[in-house]
Fold these 2 entries.
Entry 1:
Amino acid sequence: MTSLQVDASPSRTTVARGTPSRTVAAELRGLVKRFGGVTAVDGLDLTVTQGEVVAFLGPNGAGKTTTIDMLLGLSTPDSGSVQVFGTGPRQAVAEGRVSAVMQSGGLLRDLTVAETLRLTACLFSHTRSVTEVLERAGITSIADRRVGKCSGGQQQRVRFAMALLPDPDLIVLDEPTTGMDVEGRRDFWNAMHADATRGRTVVFATHYLEEADAYADRIVLVSGGRVVADGTPAEIKAMSAGRLVTATWPGAGTGEALQLRALPGVEDVELRGETVLVRAADSDAVARHLLTHTPAHDLQVTSRGLEDAFIALTGHPHTTPDTVDLTGATR
Ligand SMILES: Nc1ncnc2c1ncn2[C@@H]1O[C@H](COP(=O)(O)OP(=O)(O)OP(=O)(O)O)[C@@H](O)[C@H]1O
């Protein structure tokens, strides 16, 4: 059973999970990491229990990669602690209990996919068979292809297969699908998710809200180096209460937008060409006003999604590496 709590100071919404007896996979306590004058991670606390698939979501510069680097023992915190399966992260990695899929690097272009995996397997005392990880990562058909000839999405699945070799208890993926097309992303996550359903703990950082929504059991929203919200995708979406009213209103301009903004319960008004978008707690009142006091027509009322929650909870518009400001007029 889970329950939603609001912790007023600092502003953070958490889900207290009622399963304290489950094995803790990773425990980050009071993590702080500074680079010169920049505080990349600012007192971050997070407990991941075994078997969870956790998405680390946040705007650019939120501190996701810095946190993941500390989780993997690639860098050390200025203060705070990291424990992975009750030990330090470096030891957990050395024991093969944790492995990672990073965005780039780690591949030799002239080796085939199968040679790459056989070479990687030599680094560990015990591994799963190359045949098995090829299958798990969905790349058996390209086993004899040179890595340099593989697409970006296929190369990420090679990295995923490499990470599966030691049969880790925790797999950490840092924005593994950046730059992939939609099909590549879907294939990658289907392979990852099929593996995760066998009880593996997964922590992944992503810019893609839909990936977090579709593949995570739990979303940890990070902003300014801190956890600002933590819950299931449904819980995170529900944190941004209210609805979006969309209508066509030819000729609407700043004056009309300001009038709407002044209505009770209206949080935000946006104009995109002839379309007006109103985010409001009381969508009925907004709809009634638009239909009775203005020439607006073609009204639609929709529940707000993860993107609205992202904006509300982080104070940032949501952007991905291949899109621009989603709240801007260019959308
Ligand atoms: N090696 C470094 N030297 C200086 N500043 C750094 C370094 N690494 C990260 N930072 C800064 O720390 C902050 C957090 O960066 P980090 O890469 O962890 O964020 P992120 O959430 O992963 O961002 P993105 O989604 O854009 O990858 C940023 O302001 C970044 O510029």
Entry 2:
Amino acid sequence: MTSRDKHPMIRQRPLRLLLCLHDQAIVEAVCRSIDIVLPGTETIVAADQEMLARLSREAFDALLVSETVGPPSTLREHLVKVLSYHPGLFVVPLVAPDQPHQIHCVVDLDLPYFLTLPLDPLELNLILQRLQLKIDHLGPRQPHRSTPRNTRQIKGFIGSGPAMTRLFELIHRVAEDDFATVLILGESGTGKELVAKAIHGKSRRHAHNFVPVNCAAIPDDLLESELFGHLKGSFTGASHNKTGRIQYADQGTLFLDEIGDMKPALQAKLLRVLQEKEFEPVGSLKAVPVDTRIVAATHCDLEELVKKGAFREDLYYRLSVVPIQVPPLRDRLEDIPLLLDRFVEAFTTERSREKITFSPEAVTLLLKHEWRGNVRELENLVQHMAILHGGKTIRPQDLPEKFLRHYTPTADPDGMALDRHLFSDEVFLRERAELCAPMPVEERAISLEEGPVDFNDLINEFETELILTAMRFTSGNKKEAARLLCLKRTTLLEKIKKKGLEGRWT
Ligand SMILES: Nc1ncnc2c1ncn2[C@@H]1O[C@H](COP(=O)(O)OP(=O)(O)OP(=O)(O)O)[C@@H](O)[C@H]1O
């Protein structure tokens, strides 16, 4: 009879432990003790970069963690994140007594269990026994991640770290005050439009229209009548009265994306709407009252534009009553596993495709990427992978080249070098191109020897061909075409309209 059989209250559920330890000798010592004290335990060893990703995706009973070779703050940073995302997890840091910052970290975070280095086998065994007891009394482990503390989550909006928690809090507060103008700042693809929609959705205006206008995608001469509307005959081509988008946003929210691209004459007219709550359609002298909340967004440095005289200072101050900064994805890498889950679920369900999963090694590489295109880049990657590898687990060698800078093929048990070419970007693009016939984007040799070329004409022509290609490829599905081109749907719609391309892809 074993010692466990003598204690009927102790169940025999095998445990799952995550070890994030930075010395192979310590890993071996811990594994030896586990084999003796907790036989049958599943032990997973992870590098510190993949620790958070694994904890988000899989269920573990405990984490044993020691400090990386990185800066001294790493252990604390990791522990703060782990404790806030997984409050029920049994966390045991391994600390060196001659490293005061490590001891402070345990004390400050009020961690009940820790081990000191060098490891004392008796101390280790004791901790492991406590772990078994605690877990058997607490019942089954929580599947996957738990909801972060103090987060007022917003449906469909992924974000778990402190910066996103603050953002959600701000969205709720701004939504309650229904008049203040909001200026959303952040790099392209960080989710500025999602923030604007969330503010609208949480405000009392939610039953009315949310009207987005991309100021960069509409030609300057059309933007005024798009926004404010016009009277029949007010200019050549104005064959009928037109209602402006601002009117559609009455009682609702007008979202002015890329506000930094708005020309000064129009800025003055917008300022009037903000100050007087009324506007005049083009060609009319009669002011129309309007009750709309204006939410603007930009990836530009508006203060810099003000200094250069390209943006009105008074409008800048009017717009930025409440500035909201959306953090870039590289500053919130902990969200990547959650975003992956969400985008896989959304894309495969919407397109009736087989699901994909990302291997821990692939996730580790994603955590090292710079994400200049932010969340939109991640969303596009998921779609790219789901098209190519539906039903499979994505391994490092399946990822596009740009993710492999930190990858060592020798560490790849499957021999990346052998099948890398099968999954490259070029193959993906070729497959996609073959499906898309006829293919209007031709190979073109541009020679400057024959004289100057018109840069704008060429770019314009290429843009047209690119849009037509995407529209043909998606059989006229604008939403899907916008995805393939990494554009917002509204931007694509504006471009199609501006260039008169409607129907030309058939
Ligand atoms: N936190 C998030 N959770 C879930 N999806 C997100 C999140 N952030 C962004 N997305 C998705 O990423 C894509 C890009 O987001 P969005 O269009 O809001 O970015 P943006 O900052 O307005 O981009 P741009 O500056 O190019 O206009 C959208 O499909 C959006 O739904």
